[in-house]
C-alpha cells in the first residue's frame, strides 16, 4: 500500500488545495513522493559563528552592536544600498542590504542585533539575509532553503514539507536491505528524508545526505548494470574462436615491448572476444599511450582466425596513416588490408567491395564510407571506432549492423575521469591505458604573455633551423569585432612575412575536406614547415617531425582541448615544446594555465577540469548522457559512486537477489524502470 500512497496526487497533502496543487505541478511536483524528494539546495545556519572561523562566501549568523548610523544610497526609485557598521567581538564589520531601506528602523545606534547573511571575507562585509533585534532564542536552528517559483514561497514550501512528513513519513519505502544499513552504518531512509528537510544538527544532516547520496548512486548503478546484463543476454551467441598462440606470435614481432597498461587492456579485449556475448567496450588512453597498437592486436586476433575487422576513423588522412602503419605491422602475416574512403573510386572501389563481400579482405580501414549500403561484409566480427565522439550514434550503429555478431571497441584520446567513465559509459565496459611507453620525452610547457612574442618567434626560428616543424593555433578564423583575439588568417599573413624562407600552411574549418587533406599532407611531408590552424587540427595525423606547438589566446580553450592540441607534438624522438600565449585574467583561466604547465597527465587534467566545470559541462550538456542527480555530485561523491557500482554489480550476480523477499523492493524498482526488458536507459 505504501508505494501507492507515495504516488498519490499532491492534493492529498494537508493545506494543498487545487490552486496550490497546480502551482506545484508547474514545479514538476505531482505526487507525494515528488514533494518528499524535493530536497533543499542550501540551509540557513543560525548558530552564532566566530568570525575567525568563518569561510569566505559562507552563509553565517553573527551577533553584534550597531556602531554607526545606517547610510542609504538610492540609485533609482526602487534600487538602494544600505550600510552600517557592526562591532562583532573584536571585529568591525560592514553589514549591507540591497533594496531594503526599511531595515534602517531596526538598526539603532548602540543596540544589539543578530544578522544572518553571506560573508565576504575579503571586504569584511556581510550581505543581510535576515535581521533580528537582540539575540535569537534558538541559535542552533538549521533552516532549509528551497528553489521555488510562481506563488510558492520558501515559507510555503517548508509548510508543505512539514505537513507531508507528518502525514506520510511512515509510508516512505526503504529499498535497501537491512544488511546494507549495518555494513555502511546508514540511517533509515525515513530518518534521512526527515533530517534532510528539517535537520536537528549538522552531524545528522551530514549523515542524512550520506544515506540519500548512496541511495541515488546505488539505484542508478543497479539500473545500469541490469541494463548491461539484459543486453548481453539478448546478444548471446557471438563467441569467436581465436588462436591466442597466433596473437602471441604477432605481439612478439612488434619492435617494442607493450606497457603493463597495454597488456592489461589487451587481455580484457581478448577475453571479451572469447565470451558468448557481444563486446561493448570503450578504450580510453592519453595521447600517445598506444591505443592503436591495442586495436591492431584485436584486429589481428579476428583476422587471423578467419573473421573480418573494420576500423572507422574521422578523416581520410587518418585512415591512410592507419593503413600504412597496420600494413607495416602485419607484413610477416598473410592478412589482406584494404582502405575504403570516398576518394577510392571506379574499378578499384568495385574490386575492394567485391573482396570485402567474398571475405578475401581481412581488415578494412576507412571513413564513414564504410557504412554505405553497397559495403557488404562476409563475416564482420570486430568494429573499432577511433575518436568515437566524432561519429554520431547512428553512424556507429550502422557500422555495427554490417556484422550480425560484431563486437564493438570504441577508442577515445579524450581522457575521461574514472568518475564519469563509470557513469556516462555505464552500459559499456571501460578499459583505460593510464601509462605512456617508456622513453617518451615529456613535452615542456610554458605560459607566456603577449609581450614575449619576439622571443617566441626567435624560438620558432631556432626549431625550424634544426629541421623541425611547428603548429600555431588560433581560436578564430577571421577577425571579429566582438572579440579581441588572434585569428588564423591574420597570423598566417604575419608569419609569412616573418619566415620568408619557410612555407607557412593555413588550415581552418571553412576549407573543403579535400583542401584540408592537401594542407595536412603538405605539412606531414614537410613541404610546409609551419601550420597555422584553428582547432580542426585537434585530432589529426601523426607528424613525428613537429616539435613545437604555439597556442594564441590559450585562455579561450578548455583544459582537455589544450591537452589534445599539445598531444599533436612529442610524437618523435625530439624534445618537444608547447607555448601557451595568454593574458588570462580570471582566477579559473590562470589555474588552467598553471595546471597545463605542471602536468602532462591527461587524466590528472581531466579530474581537475571536472572540478572546475562540473560533470554536465565536461561532456557538453546536450550530449553528456549524464543523469541529473538530486543530491549526488559526481565531482565530490566519486568514492561513493565506485562503491555503489561494485555493490550493484555484485548483487545482480547473486541468485538470492532474484528470489528472496529482502530484495523484493529492488526487483520492483528494476521491473518498473523497464531495463530488464532491454528498454533504453532514460
TrEMBL record:
Enzyme Commission no: 5.6.2.4
Domain spans labelled Helicase ATP-binding: 272-433
Top enzyme class: isomerase
Family in the record: Belongs to the helicase family. RecG subfamily.
Keywords: ATP-binding, DNA damage, DNA recombination, DNA repair, DNA-binding, Helicase, Hydrolase, Isomerase, Nucleotide-binding
Lineage: Bacteria, Bacillati, Bacillota, Bacilli, Bacillales
GO molecular function, one term: hydrolase activity
Catalytic reaction list: ATP + H2O = ADP + phosphate + H(+); Couples ATP hydrolysis with the unwinding of duplex DNA by translocating in the 3'-5' direction
The keyword DNA-binding is annotated on this UniProt entry: yes
Gene coding for it: recG
One Pfam family here: RecG_dom3_C
SMART domains on file: DEXDc, HELICc
Function: Plays a critical role in recombination and DNA repair. Helps process Holliday junction intermediates to mature products by catalyzing branch migration. Has replication fork regression activity, unwinds stalled or blocked replication forks to make a HJ that can be resolved. Has a DNA unwinding activity characteristic of a DNA helicase with 3'-5' polarity.
Taxonomy, superkingdom: Bacteria
NCBIfam families found in the cross-reference section: PRK10917.1-3, PRK10917.2-2, recG
Residues in Helicase C-terminal domain copies: 452-616
Protein name in the entry: ATP-dependent DNA helicase RecG
